[in-house]
Fold each of these.
Amino acid sequence: MNIFADPQIWASTLSMAVPLALPAIGGTFSERTGVVNIAMEGIMLMGAFFGVAFAYWTGSAWIGLLMALIIGGLTSAAFAWGAIRVSADQVVLGMAINIFAGGITAFLLDTVFGFSGTPVTTPKLPNVSIPGIDQIPYIGQIFTNQSILVYVMIAIVILSHWFLFHTRLGLRMRSVGENPLAADTVGINVWRLRYSGVIIGGLLSALGGAYLSIGVLNSFSVNMTNGRGYIALAAMIFGKWTPFGSFGAALLFGFSTALGITLQGHGVSSNLLQMIPYALTIVALTGLVGRSIPPAADGLPYDPKR
Amino acid sequence: MKALRSTILGPVVATLLAIIIGGILVSAMGYNPFVVYGSLVSGAFGNAASLGNTITASIPLILCGLGIAIAFQSGLFNIGADGQYWVSASASVWVGYHFTGLPGWLHIIFCLVVGMLVGAIWGGIIPGLTRAYVGSSEVITTMMLSYIGILLARYLIEGGPMQQKGFNPESPEIAQNTQLPYFNQTLMQSQLSLVAVAITILAAVAAWFLLYKTTTGYQLRAVGFNQRAARYAGMRVTLFTIIALCLSGLFAGLAGAVQMLGVDHRLLDGFSSNYGYTAIVVSLLARNNPFGVLLAGLFFGALTTGGQNMQIVSNVPAALTDVLQGLIIFFVACERIVPQIIQWYRRRRSTRSSVAAS
C-alpha cells in the first residue's frame, strides 16, 4: 500500500477536511447552545457564492472572504431569529434556509454572471507554506503550499476547544444548551447566548463555504457544497459535539474522500467509499463505538416568559 | 369552519409573501415580474400538455409527501425520503427487467410491492430501531441513510451490477408490459399515465383512511401528539415509532416505483431530483393532511413545470422556484409569529387606552 506512504494523500485529506471541520465546529457552537443547525449546507452555499462574487467585484479575495462572513452571518441571524425568537421548528427552518440558499445562489449566478459562470480572473486566497515546517522531510510536504484557510482552521479548532471548555462564557453557552431554565434562573441571558452560538456557527459555515469557492478554486458552481453541510453535521455528531472530535471526524471523512479519488484509477467505486462518513455516523449513533449524546436541550425552543 | 379557515390561511399567506418577495427579487434583476409569473402560470396550466406535465411532476411529490405527512403526524421527521425513493426505484427497476415471464398486470403489482417494501425497510428499520431503542434522532439517521441510498443507486449503474453492458451509466429498460400506459395521444408527450394518477389518488385516500379511520392511525397520531400520554395509556410507543417510519418509507418507495414504471422506465443518472426535500415542503404546506398533500403537491408540480417554461420564455432561471419554496417554508415555520404580533398589538393598544383613561 504505497498510497499511504505518499504525502500527497495526507495533504489532500487535510485540504478536504477544511470545508467539513469548519462548519462542524460551527454546528458544535450552535448545538451546544441548543439550536439544531441543519442550515449549515445553505449557509456554506451563501458563503461560497458571495465570497467569489465580491472577490470578483472588488478584485480582492480578502474582501470576498469578509463579505462571505457577513452574508453567512446575516443568513444565520435570520435562521436564529426564527429558531429562537419565534420558536419555529428548527429542522424545518434549516431546510427552508437550505432550499432558499440553493435557489438564490443558482438564480444569482445565472442572472449576474450568465452562462459562463464566474470569470476565471477572479482572485483567490493565497496558498502559503510555513518556512520552518516545509524543511521537515515527510510532514513538510503535507503542509507545503496549502491554502491559508487550512492554518486558520487549525487555529480555530484549538481556540474553540479552549473557548467552549475553558472559559466562563463557554461554560455558560453549554449550560444554555443543557438546561436553559436553570441557566435563566441564575441570570444568564439564554436567547443572547443562543443567538451568538448560531451566528458563530453561521460564520464558520460561511468560512467553510468560502474555502470551496475562493480557497481551493476561484469559481462558483450551482450546488457547489454538494452535501458537505450535511457531512459536517455527521462529523459533528461523530465527534460528539466537541471541536477536537469534529476535527478528527472531518479528517477521517476527508481521508475517505481523498482515498476515493486516489483509488478511482484502481477500480474501487468512489460511490461506495463516499458512503463511509454516513455509515460511520449511524454506527456512532447506535452506540456501538461509544455513544454520541447530544446536549439535553438541543432542538428545543426556550420561551423565557413561560 | 373557523378552524379550517385558520389552517388554510397560514400556508396561503406564506405562499403569497413568498411570491411577493420573489417578484421584488426578479424586478431588482431587471425583469417584469408579471411577465415572469405569467410565463410560470402558462407553463404549468397553459394547455393540455403542460397540465399533463404538471400532474406528472406532482405525482412523486404527492406520494413522498404522504409518507412524510404520516411521519409528521406521528411526531417523527422523515428527512430521508430521497434515499428511500432511489433505493426503491432501483429495486423496482431490477424487478421490472428481471422477471420478464410474468403477465403485465401481475408484473406491475410485483414491481410496486417490491418498491414499497424496500422503501419501508430502508426508511423504517434502522431509523426506527435506533430511535426506539437508543433514542437517536431519526432526523439524522434518515438523512444519513438517504445519502447512502442515493450513493447505492448511483453505484448500481456506475460500474455496479445494474449497469447496462457497454452503455452510459444507466440500467436496462424495464419490460414493455410493465410500463404504465400513457393517458392518450395528446397527453403522450407529458407522459401522464391514468394508472399513476389513480395510484396517487388511492394512496392519498388510503393515507387518510389509515390516519383518521383506523385504530392504528389513531394510535400513531396519539403517539405523535403526546408520547408520554400515549405510553401511559398503554400504547406501544416503540412499535408505533417503527411502524410510522416504515409507512413513511413505504410511500416514498411507492413514489420511486411509480416514477420508474410510469416515466423513466430505467434507472438514469439523475440523482439530484430532490423529490424528498420538496416533499417535506409539500407536506408542511398541507399541514400533514393527505388531501391537502394532493393540492400542495399539484402546486409544487406546477412550480416545477412552470419554472422550466419561465426559464425558456422570460430567461429567468428556474432556480427562482427554489427561492420561492425556501421562503414558503420559512414563513410557514415562522407563522407562529403572527398571533404573537396580534397579541403584542392588543397589549399595546390596551396599555395605551388605559393610559388615556387615567
Amino acid sequence: MTPYEAAVVALVAASVFFSLVAVVGFARLPDVFARAHAASKSETLGALFGLLAAAVAFGQGATTVKLALLAMFLLVTGPTAAHAIVRAAALAGATPWTRSNRDPGPSTHDRPEATTGTGGGSR
Amino acid sequence: MTPLVSTALLAGSAALVVLAAALCWRVVVGPTTADRVVAVNVVGTAAVVVIALLGAALGEPGFLDVALVYALLNFLLSLGLARFSVEQGGLL
C-alpha cells in the first residue's frame, strides 16, 4: 500500500460516501426544496472527489487538465441546474414542508391559474 | 497503474452505479415534476463521474471527452426540462 494507492482509495471512498449521503437525503427528506438541497450540494462534492481520484490515478499530463475543467464545470453547473429547477417549481406554486403543514401535497404546476411571483412567462 | 488502484476505481464506479439506480426510485415515485428532474440531473452527474472513473481504471484518456460532452448535455437537459416541463416560462 503505497501512498499513491492509499490516496486513490481514500478519494474513491470519500466520493462514494458523499454520494451515499446525497441518495439518503434524496430518499428521506420531506419536500422538493430539501431534496434538491441535499442532491445539489452533497452529490456535487462526491463528484468532485471522484474526479480528483481519477486525476490522481491518471498522474500528470493533459488528462489532468481535462479533469480539472470537468470538475470546474460540474462545480458551477450542478447547483445552478438544481437552483433553476427548484426556482421554477417555487414559481409554479410548490409549498415547503413545515411543522404545521406536514403534507405539502403535490406541486400545483398542473394548474396554471395558481402561479404567482415574478419572472414567469406570459400566460 | 497498479492492480489495487484499478480495483478501487472499478469498485467505486460500481458503487456509484448502484446509488444512481437507487435514485431511479425517486424518479418513479415523484411526487412532483421538480423531484423527478432533480433526480435525473443527479443520475447524470453520477454517470459523468462513472465515465471518468472507468477511463482512469482502464487507462483510456479518451473517455474524458465523453464525460465532458455528457456533463454539458446533462446541464442543458436540466435547464430545458426546468423550462418546458415545470415552469413553461422564464429560464433563470
